[in-house]
């Protein structure tokens, strides 16, 4: 194998891609997506104002926005508060349990043999299917929603954490043992830090899942929240309030996901820098 010296490498000709073949910048791709949304919303407004769609259930987009802004100062704002309380409570509990189980089952083989079949059965069950039996056990209140959300988000966090533990370089573990680290100290100082990128990837998936499951649980079991609010507006034939609630929910869900990505990149800057290079 020959080694190329830095001086020789400096004299090598550099090849630049033509401007038309260079991939678009990330910001340009993002703005093109926003532009498409704006065009569709303008078509919505125009179709209602110009009479292209004549229906009481197809109000202009401007009317929907005004109704959403009014709702945020009243029932819609309260419903969102209740929903996000349940969502983040279930997300926190389920993520904590998933991380703990992933670390323990990845390190202790006997525990993996004992609990892995139960976890595999639980994570294959659709979350809505768990609602009827849990309604009998927990009633219709917050305990039901938080429990179902916790079980739903535990699965992706556990799978990612477990995979991260199994991918830890055994050389690091043996080096820690050489320096006198015990089993628990090895998990805390070597295994857990090496698994953090996998954990955050699992939690990022769980965030969207938590919101979806919370809304479905509220639609089925009621007791407040944005899910019950949307169904109430449907039964009342208030299309503008219904569409407004859906739009506000989608915007907040997008902002939560973007905020998590920003925090993830800030905490794991070293990980993303290595991926970019």
Short overview:
By secondary structure, this protein is mainly α. The chain has twelve helices and no strands.
CATH-level-2 architecture: Orthogonal Bundle
Rg computed from alpha carbons, rounded to a whole number of angstroms: 25 Å
Stretches where pLDDT is under 50 for at least 5 consecutive residues are 1-12
Count of individual helical segments: 12
Estimate the strand proportion: under 5%
CATH class: Mainly Alpha
**Structural shape:** elongated
Class per helix and strand makeup: mainly alpha
Q: How far do the termini sit from each other?
A: 24 Å
Number of strands: 0
Annotated CATH topology: MetI-like fold
Structural domain count = 1
Average pLDDT, to the nearest integer?
A: 83
What does this entry look like structurally?
This protein is mainly α and 277 residues long. The N terminus is likely disordered.
From the structure above, extract its key features.
disordered N terminus; MetI-like fold; elongated; mainly alpha; 80% helix; 277 residues
């Amino acid at each position: 194998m020959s080694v190329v010296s830095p001086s020789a490498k400096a004299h090598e000709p550099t090849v630049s891609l033509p401007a038309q073949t260079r991939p678009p910048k990330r910001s340009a791709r993002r703005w093109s997506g926003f532009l498409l949304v704006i065009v569709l919303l303008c078509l919505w407004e125009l179709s209602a104002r110009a009479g292209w769609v004549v229906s009481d259930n197809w109000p202009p987009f401007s009317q929907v926005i005004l109704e959403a802004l009014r709702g945020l100062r009243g029932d819609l704002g309260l419903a969102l508060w209740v929903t996000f309380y349940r969502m983040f409570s279930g997300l926190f509990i389920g993520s904590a349990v998933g991380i703990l189980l992933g670390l323990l089952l990845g390190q202790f083989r006997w525990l993996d043999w004992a609990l892995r079949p139960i976890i595999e059965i639980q994570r294959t069950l659709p979350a809505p299917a768990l609602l009827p039996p849990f309604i009998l056990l927990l009633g219709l209140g917050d305990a039901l929603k938080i429990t179902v959300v916790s079980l739903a988000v535990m699965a992706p966090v556990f799978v990612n954490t477990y995979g991260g533990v199994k991918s830890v370089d055994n050389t690091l573990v043996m080096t820690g043992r050489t320096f006198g680290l015990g089993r628990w100290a090895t998990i805390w100082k070597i295994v857990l830090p090496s698994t953090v990128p996998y954990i955050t990837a699992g939690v990022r998936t769980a965030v969207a899942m938590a919101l979806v499951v919370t809304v479905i649980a509220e639609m089925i079991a009621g007791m407040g929240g944005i899910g019950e609010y949307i169904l109430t507006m449907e039964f009342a034939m208030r299309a503008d309030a219904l569409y407004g609630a859906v739009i506000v929910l989608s915007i907040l869900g997008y902002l939560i996901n973007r905020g998590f990505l920003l925090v993830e990149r800030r905490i794991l800057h070293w990980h993303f820098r290595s991926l970019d290079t």
